[in-house]
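Pipeline run #58 for the internal structure catalog. This entry was flagged by the ingest filter as a single-chain record with no existing model, so it goes straight to prediction. Upstream metadata was stripped on purpose; only the residue string is passed forward. Reviewer on rotation: M.T. Logging verbosity set to normal.
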Amino acid sequence: MVLVQKLKDNCNESINLGHTVTITLKRVRDWYGKGKCIQMEALSA
């Protein structure tokens, strides 16, 4: 899905914001998959 790839890119952009966010997003993506990463990004925004 194009939407998933676009949201994945948003996660990658968020990773650049800080080390804590980096670790959190990486763990979320590992544990729950890309869909959950999107939710974390929304909460962090």
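catalog note: The mean pLDDT is 65.
catalog note: The longest helix spans residues 2-15.
status: ready for reviewer M.T.
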